[in-house]
Amino acid sequence: MMVTAGNPWSWILGYLVLGVTGISPSSLALPLGSSYPGAHIINGEDCTPHSQPWQAALLVDNELFCSGALVHPQWVLSAAHCLLDSYSVGLGLHSLETSQEPGSRVLEPLLSIQHPEYDNPSFANDIMLIKLKEAVPESSTIRTISVASRCPVAGEECLVSGWGRLASGGLPSRLQCVNISVVPQEVCSEVYDSLYHYSMFCAGGGQSRRDSCHGDSGGPLICNRSLQGLVSLGHIPCGQPSTPSVYTNLCKFTDWIQRTIYTS
């Protein structure tokens, strides 16, 4: 299987959030699954191979369009705005250019369940559970990650990973990792103004310009060894010092996640 990190779903670019206070037309908010020429994990580096064994790749015709995280042997968490009619889920992948990577699996979803209060225009409650057609046994390349029960703390350092484009504009052959810090809620709400929702939190956008960006949607943000958030929204251009990216705040959804997994 040859997997390439390209996203043909340019229709997502039809959604641009206008009227965000203090944001110029050159730095509009948009979902980070979008295909955009500058798409990348900002100022990251190659992850240690299989150091993020919960990382999932959402694929159409072997092309990446979003990411996710394995939270149960048969369930993957991703962003609700990543839902498509037909796709597959890759697990145990490090390089998207490696044919038949040892220890990897590509599975079909049985169910795709968006949060019942997901709001498309505002991206509130941007979370989706994907039930795989079969449970996947854990291995050195595939492993589940626990969902954080506590909410993020401002200043906490976390790690986000994804296969978005590199800062140079090229496609990475390997999974990218970057450390970023959680931003205070009041800063997040001020930056995103009417778009901000309690189901969100912000991280990145500091002076180091480390950040997630377009193509990384649904990908995991790991804080204190737990899955704290999912990549959701950001600005054009990414990685600006005053404009952090938005993550789905998973501590707000622990009950829904558990209930959905054990009743579906």
UniProtKB/TrEMBL annotation:
Database matches in PROSITE patterns: TRYPSIN_DOM, TRYPSIN_HIS, TRYPSIN_SER
A GO biological-process term: proteolysis
GO molecular function: metal ion binding; serine-type endopeptidase activity
CDD domains: Tryp_SPc
Keyword NAD on entry: no
GO cellular component, as recorded: extracellular region; secretory granule
Domain Peptidase S1, chain residue ranges per copy: 41-262
Major subcellular location class: secreted
Keyword Signal among UniProt keywords: yes
Compartments where found: Secreted
One family name in Pfam for this protein: Trypsin
Keywords from the named record: Biomineralization, Disulfide bond, Glycoprotein, Hydrolase, Metal-binding, Protease, Secreted, Serine protease, Signal, Zinc, Zymogen
Family matches, as PANTHER family: KALLIKREIN-4 (PTHR24271:SF65), KALLIKREIN-RELATED (PTHR24271)
Stated role: Has a major role in enamel formation. Required during the maturation stage of tooth development for clearance of enamel proteins and normal structural patterning of the crystalline matrix.
Protein name per Swiss-Prot or TrEMBL: Kallikrein-4
Source species: Octodon degus (Degu)
